[in-house]
Amino acid sequence: MDDFFRSVERFVNERIRPNINDWDEAGEFPRDLYREAGALGLLGLGYPEEYGGFECSLSDRLRLSNLICDAGSGGLLAGLFSHNIGLPPLINHGSDELVSMIAPAVLKGEAISALAITEPSGGSDVANLKTRASLVMVNGEPHYEITGDKVFITSGIRADWLTVAVRTGEAGAKGISVLMVPGTAQGLTRTPLKKTGWWMSDTAAIHFDRVQVPASHLVGQENKGFRIVMENFNTERLMLAGACVGFAKVCLRDALDWAQHRETFGKHLINHQVIAHKLTDMRMKVRATEAWFDETIARIDRGDIDQTLVADICLLKNQATQTLQHCANEAVQILGGMGFMRGCAIERIYREVKVMCIGGGAEEIMKELAIRQLGW
Ligand SMILES: Cc1cc2nc3c(=O)[nH]c(=O)nc-3n(C[C@H](O)[C@H](O)[C@H](O)COP(=O)(O)OP(=O)(O)OC[C@H]3O[C@@H](n4cnc5c(N)ncnc54)[C@H](O)[C@@H]3O)c2cc1C
């Protein structure tokens, strides 16, 4: 594992870090990067070997993703690893045939995977989603025909495979299914969206106009998709929490470095007590959040899983996003005008903070879910 960590570090330092500003300004990173990350083994982390992945503990997987955070771009993390939200429903619940058709190419970086849950009418209330899929016969074969809209979909423009939540049954959570839809499907229209941050990650609005996929593209059982979607959110929230810790550390590191070199009124910034206190507060929040994060991961790795775990993951996500909000805000303040300039990691992270508080379950929803899981 140590060798692997070193090779990922090299990949970050040589391939990612020097290009990160240009990719952000360009609004995309090269598609080849998926193949390079796939060849390195980064995309296959935590996935079954039979599909080209390699098993590793959750803690190693998240420590590795922390190395990518060190380059200071949530957009890269979201885009390059969108399969980490798109693929698990398929791997965990899809038929062998469907998984074998899709997963190996995604883990090699030859195909891009995205998850499409959110709709223009709302993302928090998943049980109320409206995109409809009905069974129809096409050339004597059963197909699902999908009509509706998805929005804010990460990697939605480039995705070769979309993992889509649709309504196949009654209103509410019991009428939802998950389907695998190829990006090339007829009737699919994808529109890029402009955003405050995560510039290099593509984000799409997707319209489905009677898009047909074979009935064999159903993941799990019909009308049992809500549980699959919810289960997937737990991992996404953990990954987001880990990323927040990673980016908060970048804020602390770069702000401390600046404070140790910048002089005002005849001394380094760090020697102004107000600034030193800001940095100690940042460290305090980072250390506390990281400790909680590590404890949660260790708990999962040893199989200590119950309802309080789901509640804690929700609250940990909020703790981590609040820590990042605090650290990014203070880091910009410590850098002064320079913290507001493009090309600086702290400026980019500051722009990216809000999406962490909204994506994968917004702060208010995390509290509601935690309350329900705790039985309060
Ligand atoms: C850059 C970006 C990338 C994204 N990538 C993806 C992706 O890849 N796939 C995907 O499916 N989705 C994606 N999303 C969507 C994201 O998951 C949703 O934005 C999020 O779930 C919130 O949904 P919403 O935006 O529709 O807000 P809404 O659900 O309309 O909520 C708006 C606000 O009201 C609050 N609120 C809602 N209900 C309640 C309540 N009962 N009590 C109190 N407060 C409430 C929410 O917390 C939120 O603050 C992405 C979003 C962004 C911005």
Automatic annotation (TrEMBL):
Q: Which Pfam families match?
A: Acyl-CoA_dh_1 (PF00441), Acyl-CoA_dh_M (PF02770), Acyl-CoA_dh_N (PF02771)
Cite the SUPFAM superfamilies for this sequence.
Acyl-CoA dehydrogenase C-terminal domain-like, Acyl-CoA dehydrogenase NM domain-like
Q: Which InterPro entries match?
A: Acyl-CoA_dehydrogenase, Acyl-CoA_Oxase/DH_mid-dom, Acyl-CoA_Oxase/DH_mid-dom_sf, AcylCo_DH-like_C, AcylCo_DH/oxidase_C, AcylCoA_DH/ox_N, AcylCoA_DH/ox_N_sf, AcylCoA_DH/oxidase_NM_dom_sf
Source superkingdom: Bacteria
Domain Acyl-CoA oxidase/dehydrogenase middle, chain residue ranges per copy: 114-211
Residue stretches making up the Acyl-CoA dehydrogenase/oxidase C-terminal domain: 223-374
Q: Does the keyword Oxidoreductase apply?
A: yes
The family classification in the record reads: Belongs to the acyl-CoA dehydrogenase family.
Name it. Acyl-CoA dehydrogenase family protein
Organism lineage string? Bacteria, Pseudomonadati, Pseudomonadota, Betaproteobacteria, Burkholderiales
